[in-house]
Every structure is written in structure tokens, then in C-alpha cells.
Structure prediction request, 245 residues.
Amino acid sequence: MSHGKKDMPILEHIRELRNVIIVSIIAFVIACVVSFILSKQIIQIFTRPFARIDSLTEKTLVVSSIAEGFIAQLKITVIGGFILSIPVHIFGIVRFIFPGLSVREKRIVMSFLVFSLILVIAGVWMVYFKLIPLAIDFLTNPLFVPVTVGFLLNYETNIFYLLTFMLWAVLALQIPLIMEILLAMNILKRRYVWKATRFIIVGCFILAAIVTPPDIASQIGVAIPLICFHFLALIIAKIFKFGEG
Prediction:
């Protein structure tokens, strides 16, 4: 073939996809080992927010079975391994699709990968330092739990709850960025996205309700940034003339 990887036969594409999957699996396993080694520090980080509950029994979480500690450790290892290996997965996907992209599209993808990393860091900060304390304060306030009632919180359930809350909230914040990439590549048309904005706003609140604890404060805390990023993506698309036609 004279046109490089873009014209490779289907079997060659399958081999490249296989290599990407193998590298991702190896990276995930290595990241899980690292996550397991750091699990003590991770557990300390995610038990700290519960110290703000004044009536929590002995300021600690409890286990209800002898296997619970092992199961919690396994979940922390897997979720931590996935989060740590995300850059390798993204790099593999980009490397696989790059041969089929134009120079302009490659620049767009690489630029937005940088913004994706910034959004991940910002999302982790927002969830851990703002939304989790807000959710805990809201759900444990005297309106719902009388001051005469103490808390005896399950270790596995609550640690896993906070981990998954952070993971899904961070992933949700990537949606406007994906929309921007699709607009930049002219796969989505800006006028159709504008017309669908009211439905997207409703979708943001539904998504926030799915990925956050069952309280209005944290749901709004995720939905509002999503909506703001949606309009920001449209403004950027307008400025750079993405998704026209």
C-alpha cells in the first residue's frame, strides 16, 4: 500500500486493535498492583470525609462480616487501577484512530486530550473537597437524622459509594469535551446541538441524579457544571467555526 496505515488491510487493523487491548490490560494490571500497594493511603483519604459527622460512633466505619475488608480492598484495587491506567487507555485509543485522521483532526484530538486531563483533575478536586462534604452534611443534618441518633456506617458500602461517586462524576464532566471534539471534526452540527439544548439540560440533571448521592445539593453540584461546560463548548465552537453546515 502506498498511502500508509490509512489503507492497511482489515487484518492489520485487527492486529493493531489486539495490541492496543493487550497493552491496556497490562497497564490495568500494573496499575492495580500500584493501587493495592497504595490502598492504605487511599482508604485514609476516603475515610477522612466521614470525620465531619459529629455523632459517628467512635469516629470510624465498621465492618459487618469477616470477608468485608477483603471485598473492599478488591474494589479499591480495581477502581484505583482503572483510574490510574486511564491515560494508557486513552493513548491506545488515540494511537489506533490516529492513522485515519487528518493533520487538523490530530491536532484537535491532542489539544482536547490536554483539556480532558485538566477536567479530570478539576473534577476530582470538586467532588472530593466540595460535593462529598456537601452531600454528607446534607444527608446527616438534624432534619433527617435527630441529634439523639448516632451513626454506625458500614465500611465497604460507604467507601465504595464515595469512590464510585467520584469516578462517575469525573467521567460525566468529560461529556461536553467529547461533544466539542465531535463538533470540531464536523461529525456534529452546531445548529442541531443548539436546538437540542433544552433536552440536553434535562439530560444533565437526569445524569447528575444517577451518578450522585440521593440529595439535591450534590445533584445540582454536578448538573450545573455540566450545563456550563455545554454552553462553553458551544461558544468555543462558534468562535472557531466548528460544526458549521
